[in-house]
Amino acid sequence: MIGRLNHVAIAVPDLEASCTQYSSILGAKVGKPQHEPNHGVTVVFIELPNTKIELLHPLGDQSPITSFLEKNPSGGIHHMCYEVDDILSARDQLIGSGARVLGGGEPKVGAHGKLVIFLHPKDFNGCLIELEQV
Fold it and tell me: Which residues, at least 6 apart from 37, have a Cβ–Cβ distance to it below 8 Å?
């Protein structure tokens, strides 16, 4: 069902410092910040030859990243995103297997402008999983 790894998302307490670290120290190509109000985050994508890193920073007081950073003040891996060909088929297959799809199970438009769903971390070894339709 899952295809290639699309990105690894890292929650960061200081977006500007993290961007500088990736560009200056690691020499990576760092994109521009994108505000995603529907998800409560500001994202920056780091382009790598084989995947992307997504830096996540809270956007607004109700951001889900705020509580993550309260528990992990230095930041940390927030989720992993895998590509799927058909998000609705993948969702239905996962629900049929007993996996929990967050947010009522309806896909939303993600930062790449494509449909995404998130799977409960307790069903996947403590890792929040995002699936993105390609």
Answer: 59, 60
Cβ contact 31:47 at 8 Å: yes
Q: Is 130 assigned a catalytic role?
A: yes
The neighbour count for residue 98, using CB atoms within 10 Å, is 7
Rounded Cα gap, residues 113 and 123, in angstroms? 26
Q: pTM of the prediction? A: 0.94
Q: Which residues contact 92 (CB under 8 A, 6 or more apart)?
A: none
Q: Name the architecture of domain 5-133.
A: Roll (3.10)
pLDDT tens, residue by residue, 64-83: 999 999 999 999 999 999 99
Residue 127 phi/psi, 5° resolution? -110, 125
Task: Classify 54 as helix, strand or coil.
Answer: strand
3-state secondary structure 56-98: EEECCCCCHHHHHHHHCCCCEEEEEEEEECCHHHHHHHHHHCC
How far apart CA 97 and CA 112 sit, in angstroms, is 28
Given 54, 83, 130, 132, the catalytic residue? 130
